Amino acid sequence: MKMNFETVFNRYKRLTFADFLGLSVLFFLIFIFLSHSLRVKFIQDDAYTSFRYAKNFTEGNGLVFNEGEKVEGYTNFLWVMLLSGEKVIHDKIFLNDNLDASGDILSFTHIEKTAQLFSLFFSVVILILTYSLGRMLNGSRGRDEKLYRQIINEIVHLTPVALMAYSIPLIYWGVSAMETSLFVSFTLLSVIRYLKNYQAGKPDYILVFISFLNSLVRPEGLLVFALIIFHKISFDYFSSIKENRPARIREAFDKTTRLEIMWYSIPLLIYIGFRIIYYGYPLPNTFYAKTEFSPEFIIRGINYFLEFAQGYLFYGAALILPVVLFKDKKNIRSVSFLLCFSVSWIIMIILIGGDVLPLYRFFLPVLPLIYLVFVKSIFGTVNYLLPNKKILALSTFAVLLASIAGLGVINYTIQKPGMIEKRSYESGLVKKMKVYAAWVKNKNLNVHKDEKAVTVAMSTIGAFSYFSGAHVIDIVGLTDSYIAHHPRETEGIGEELPVLWKERRYNAEYVLSQKPDYIIFPAGAKPSAFAECALFVHDDFRENYYTQIFYSDEMRQFLPIFTRKEKIRNNENQDCGIKYLKYYIMANNSFVKMLERGDRTLLKQIVEECDRVIQLCPQKTSEANALKGMAFYHSNNFLIAQDYLLKAIKNDETNSIAAYYLMKVYDMLGKKNEALSLIPAIVRYSPDVFPNLVIE
């Protein structure tokens, strides 16, 4: 104990003024990062999928999404286990935090707070590891070195940390309650272990252990370990050639490397075996549902990278300038590894088509590495241009680093509004899904024991599934093995449709064959994904589902939910194809813009788009006329609105939206009796539209 204290004390004594200054700035940057993150503070809808797996697991239902269905709809096994373990401990000490039907659905539960805290904690770890890796790459300093050089060295170590602290991707995903920050932390730890111990001459079992844990956090952890081993073998092989020694793969692929691969592979193969036995497949279901190697995906991946490079790599300069470091023979191993690792990772992300979620989380594992070599390359470039002017070179270098850090702050200011917009969208989505969940959960409570529980089909499954407890059909197949392995695209649904989500692995016919009680679109009454479009144009959907609306006190608005009809009709109407769908979505988008902007000039456009819908698909006349009536109502043209809404109800008596708006029109026109007479017709198909109304 005495020796340990003396060791710590001696290390403390060896700290210089520059060290204290560097640590002080590091803590200040961590404080800045935390203040940015806590202002953003939200939970990604996808995080709730992990929460649902953890909830089912701790309640004895198995590691499943829907009870009785073994589907690996997560890619973060260790994160789920971490949340499960914490939940078990918490539930043993405190009361279970599950909300009952009367609970406040908009307040955070314990698992939400815990996941967000873990996410934020590991984000801070990323900043600390970035600083540590920077100190390791740039070498140690002597106490007798001049103070200004020590301070400049600290600036070198801290500049990448500053860039990360002001990095929008880390701020956004670092507080999202997802596993991203844990994965990046393990990746940085793996890199540090490899660069620190590659000459040890014996297997680095700590590296192996960290790499295995990383592979449990995300499947890409396998790629991290593979790139480390590949670089280790190839670097030793080519070094032998350069040094005129016999170059043999066998020597580069030595016993130490083989042992590391073996001890990494054994537990990984056991885990894969568990997957095959429990789930039936060697890879997560999400891999089969999302992965598609095609020219279209590669183009998306290239655009994903170009946007990232423009926003966070100084238009690619941070990735190009470090090439000059290959002249530095002293650090060639570390430089070549960091660059090759980063480029390989970028290529992999491009090939899989980038990410459907915003703000470049897939590039976060390499962002600190790129910043580290970028800063180091600036130092090398300045020394090359000013070889005999050390003071001028150091001064120039310091000014350049300060400028780059300043650019990072400016870039944060520029990118921040976009991040806030995306955060607002995601928070609004989660809030809306919680409201839907509470409504469906209440329906489930009214189901008799001998009846089938409520089934809901949707694409944004996270928060809804966790809070509703309903049986959920994931229409994009992430938690549905049949859709993931048997996708079936609907002909005519393609890039020309103005939708946000364009995943092509869906199967509308299968979803509708399951006869879900409800279908929810996150955008409301219009589809916003290819999978939703495929449902919307299907004959079964058009004939056997109607739009029910209910009022939400929390949202202070009516929410639509597609409800299966009690009396099923079969092929009574002629198929009207898909061409109308583009105009239907455009008309809805124009209507939303008109409400948001108060721009009544959009009224003509809405009418024209609705007329195109009716022309191409007469079966959608009721919805189109209802939309026109709503647009005229909000333009204070009540008489015209009345005509369109009456036509909508005449075409389809289940159109509760049209009936509700017609009631409002009658009220504005002073027709009180007519308005009251519509209430029974409205509540017949939408009984929760007036939550406090009692009809005798």
Structural summary, described in words:
- The chain has 696 residues and is mainly alpha-helical.
- It has helices at residues 2-14, 17-40, 47-58, 77-93, 110-138, 147-165, 168-173, 180-197, 205-217, 221-242, 249-252, 255-279, 285-290, 295-312, 317-320, 332-351, 367-385, 390-445, 462-468, 481-485, 508-513, 530-536, 539-544, 579-597, 602-616, 621-634, 638-651, 656-668, 672-677, 679-685; strands spanning 455-458, 471-474, 518-520, 545-552, 557-564.
- It has 2 domains: 2-96 and 107-424, no CATH class; 486-685, Serine Threonine Protein Phosphatase 5, Tetratricopeptide repeat, CATH 1.25.40.
List keywords for this structure.
single chain, elongated, mainly alpha, 4% strand, 2 domains, 30 helices, 696 residues
How would you characterize the largest beta sheet? 5 strands, mixed
* Strand fraction: under 5%
Classify the helix fraction into a percent range. 55-70%
Tally of DSSP helical segments: 30
Q: How is the largest sheet built, in terms of strand order?
A: 2-1-3-5-4
First-residue to last-residue Cα separation: 81 Å
Question: What structural category arises from helix and sheet content?
Answer: mainly alpha
Overall body shape: elongated
Radius of gyration (Å): 29 Å
What is the arithmetic mean of pLDDT? Answer: 90
The total strand number stands at 5
Oligomer: single chain
Give the uncertain stretches in residue-range form.
99-103
Structurally, how many domains make up the residues?
2
